[in-house]
Design goal:
145 residues; Arc Repressor Mutant, subunit A; alpha+beta; globular; two-stranded antiparallel sheet; homodimer
Chain lengths: 145, 145
């Protein structure tokens, strides 16, 4: 695997992450589970996608360790999907997507996803910082392999 | 548009961003342009995708204001693609995807995308903070509309 990856110019941490997240639906499922929508029918109501697509995305997120499936009632047949710590680890991805749209979308936004601190109710922000926690302007950054 | 969006339970800042970014290829094109690969043939060599797919992704990123196309030489026919400030604004998305894979991938990584501060050469990090710039643990966050 490593040898194959070393020869594969696409492979990097970003492509690895995108191969798990797959497409836009996976991140929207993550968004909804993180805001407490955790049953199949409720997710379908929220996302308006075909049941087979939703089932595929839930199965691949479960396989990737992002969601965990468990019965709603002990020994019941109906299942719910809950976020794992690996799923919580995607919050910075969601916050950075929210910030990007907030900063660059020309459309007036009436309806806005927010990430808040549950203990204070305040919206959080994301920053790129150096080892001394000083913010760094985007123009000063570059990407390297 | 606004009325339609208000009735659309999928629509939010996250889905808006994903509708521009479209699929994994768009973010990988952004990654490569940000590391200085900015000609069509070089991007194709790096990404190993079909020319028509790459042309589509470049056109939609140009239309979204993420890339700007210009001749390599004045009045020349060969074009290159350069990042706009809106493209630089995607760096936090890339950094958060890199961090997520670094924290959660079980595979040993030999080859790793890094975002560095050009002035120091140091790798940067991303953090979720409150208004006083104090870091907030992921478990303390929730997503709301």
């Amino acid at each position: 695997m490593t040898t194959e990856h070393e020869q594969d110019p696409v492979h990097c941490a970003i492509s690895d992450a995108l191969s798990v997240l797959g497409d836009r639906w996976s991140l929207l499922v993550v968004r909804d589970v993180l805001r407490g929508i955790n049953r199949f029918d409720s997710l379908q109501d929220s996302l308006h996608i075909a049941r087979n697509i939703l089932a595929q995305r839930l199965a691949s997120l479960e396989e990737a360790g992002v969601l965990v499936k468990s019965p709603i009632k002990p020994n019941g047949k109906r299942m719910c999907y809950n976020p794992t710590p690996k799923c919580l680890g995607l919050i910075p991805v969601l916050v950075s997507l929210i910030d990007w749209t907030a900063n660059w979308s020309s459309e007036e936004q009436k309806r806005w996803a927010k990430v808040i601190d549950k203990t204070t109710g305040e919206e959080v922000k994301i920053g790129i910082v150096d080892n001394n926690n000083n913010p760094i302007p985007m123009s000063q950054l570059s990407i390297q392999f």
